[in-house]
């Protein structure tokens, strides 16, 4: 049998089925070999998977880049033209 991470037809109603892969198992075919997958419609595993996804959803490099761009946005840019003269009368 061809090894693929794609869920089998029996995984259709499972919450861990992400369409092109299973949220928990690397090879869903092997999990169904004994008759029923241990993760099939298992609410405890689904909640654990969802909380892990929420925790791992931050990107520190992206957040740092956003902060730098916010600071750069506040500076005036003249693009090669000298800044206007300010009169002090």
Describe this structure in words.
This protein is an all-alpha fold and 89 residues long. The protein is rod-shaped, with a radius of gyration of 26 Å. It starts with 27 loop residues before the first helix and ends in a 15-residue tail after the last helix.
N- to C-terminal distance: 86 Å
Shape: rod-shaped
Order of helices and strands: HHH
Helix content: 25-40%
Largest sheet: none
β-strand percent reads under 5%
Number of strands: 0
Number of helices: 3
Average pLDDT taken over every residue: 84
pLDDT < 50 stretches: none
Structural class: mainly alpha
Radius of gyration: 26 Å
List keywords for this structure.
single chain, 89 residues, mainly alpha, 3 helices, 36% helix
In short:
With 89 residues, this protein is mainly α. The chain contains 3 helices and no strands. The longest helix has 15 residues.
Explain the layout of strands and helices.
Elements: H1 28-31, H2 43-55, H3 60-74
